[in-house]
Amino acid sequence: MAQRPKRGLKADIKAPLILAAILAIIAFVGVFVFATGGTNNQPEIKLALSAAGGVFVVTLVVCATLIMVERPNDEELGQGTGINRRSADLYAAAKARKEERERREREQAASG
Questions:
Q1: Any stretches that span the bilayer, and where are they (predicted)?
Q2: Distance between CA atoms of 20 and 57, rounded to whole angstroms?
């Protein structure tokens, strides 16, 4: 598994903030335009600001959750015994046992 290079706190926060700001602006413009209901009515600025704020917060929460989930475990957590053994090691051991058993069967068939 490729390790992601370490980045600073500023780099981790910058992308979600930009994404949240862009989506909030889109929500603001959309609600501002469509909630007014025509050119004869007053613009719904409070509703547009509320929608933009909600979209901003929800986007930040989703991005933060995805960032926390994405971080890989330390390599040392894949080592150990019992249920913590690595599946690659289990496969290699099973393959070696199978090859050894087949070799013994071939030797017995050749000698007997």
A1: 15-35, 47-69
A2: 8
Is position 66 within any domain? yes
Tokens 């070799």, residue?
103
**Number of domains the chain contains:** 1
Q: Is residue 69 part of a domain?
A: yes
Dig out the tokens for 9 from the structure: 């706190």
Q: Which domain holds residue 57?
A: 9-73
C-alpha 88: how far from its chain's center?
A: 24
Position 57 in a domain: yes
Let me know if residue 48 belongs to a domain. yes
Residue pair 23/59 in contact by the 8 Å Cβ criterion:
yes
Per-residue pLDDT of the chain (112 residues; tens, 9 = 90+): 455 566 666 777 888 999 999 999 999 999 999 998 878 888 889 999 999 999 999 999 999 898 888 777 777 666 665 565 667 777 888 899 999 999 999 999 888 6
